[in-house]
Amino acid sequence: MITARVPLLLLVGVPVVPLVPSPWLGALAAVALPLALAAADLLAAAPLSRLTAGRDGARVAWLGETVTVRLTLTNGSPRRLRCLLRDAWVPSAGAGPYSHRLDLAPGEIRTVETVLTPTRRGDRSAVRVSIRSYGPMGLAYRQSRRRVADARTPPWTLRVLPRFASRRYLAEKLARLRVLDGTVAIRGRGQGTEFDALREYVVGDDVRSIDWRASARRSDMVVRSWRPERDRRVLCVLDTGRTSAVRVGDEPRLDAAIDASLLLAWIAARAGDRVDLLAVDTAVRASVAGAGKRAWMWRLVSALAPLEPALVETDFGLVAGEVMRRERKRALVVLFTALEPAALGEGLLPVLPRLAARHRVVVASVQDPILSRLAEGSAPDDADPVDRVYAAAAAHRALAERDRVRAALARHGVEVVDAPVESFASRVADAYLAMKATGRL
Domain DUF58, which positions (predicted)? Predict the structure, then answer.
């Protein structure tokens, strides 16, 4: 292929044509000379068949984090390689710089760096390494066909983990957990709590905690201390159906659910409970079991990273069946879904009685701020007054339907966490800690 320099040479030769005795010969020479030079330049360009490439660098990154991936080129040709390299990635990988100009001597090895700042979680892949090998004069270049370039491109996938913005609440929630767990003594029996140890009576202790037999043996007043229940089971169920694709604020509802489930799983694991996770729509999309292992949290984050909403109606019968099959003992089941009357009324409510009979169920949903604004009459400034009224009425109706769904869930003993996206993860964690403190797990 020729470069833009060849037409420039042709334009330079045009004024010379009238000065030659034979204009035809002059025109032929003005055209043939640049083409001959381009052909010679093409033959002198280094072949790409003996060029090898390899990659190394980051394999995993958090969403919004900047990482570097290195591409190493080895010029196996006996000719000098003057090339333009383009390392193409999917757009959401945030790759840059777009291209690199290289000059490699025969046998030389050169490494170029591509900086990635991903804008979406999941697997972000390298697409193609395209290389143009230029001749010494820069008049022509060699470039492989797309199929050959794809075959020679070293594969690389960067797994982008969820942002986990709710980790800012970890210090506060873990401090509350330490209070429940014994840093501050829990005095009083409390339903569902476990015996911890005997200690001497101090002023202010509940007299109902006195162990009279132990006091008689020691000839001193001793009381029982209690701690929250341990080794309970917590199952986070993510609804990845069509309702999870709705954008709430700046992110899909599924991303808010992932963030809240990570915070809840971290706290529950630190509290000594067993945490499992399930992502379901019409099939099981992800399943992570077994908290307490060293790499469990890493497996959980890695499994959540590639999850994407599916534009299908969630099969809540499958959800209930999977929960009942996996959790034989009583467990806390936190279902991250939307309080949508159509989806829950026809899908979840029919299977909820047998699910709530065995397990403690919490339904966690993110509030849509647009509904609240429309209900308050905050329509766009250029909206027609009649449209404002209809929009406010529709918003009030949607909020009333959500209230009816919440009341129907409460009649089955289901606790509902319905909060804005800014405080959603914190509210879910608070609900768990409240159950932990009162022994309701």
Answer: 198-374
* 59-78 mean pLDDT: 93
- Mark whether 154 and 22 lie in a shared domain: no
d(CA 34, CA 324) in angstroms, rounded, equals 78
CB 140 within 8 A of CB 43: no
Q: Are residues 427 and 341 in the same domain?
A: yes
Distance CA 209, CA 194 (A): 13
E-assigned strand segments in 210-331? 222-227, 233-239, 247-248, 251-252, 274-280, 284-288
Same domain, 204 and 290: no
Q: What is the pLDDT of residue 71?
A: 94
The whole-model pTM stands at 0.78
Structural domain of residue 200, as residue ranges? 195-227
Q: CB 12: neighbour CB atoms within 10 A?
A: 11
157-188 burial code (b ≥16 CB/10 A, e <16): ebbbbbbbbbeebeeebeebbeebbeeebbbe
Q: Give the residue carrying structure tokens 């768990």.
A: 432
Distance CA 151, CA 128 (A): 9
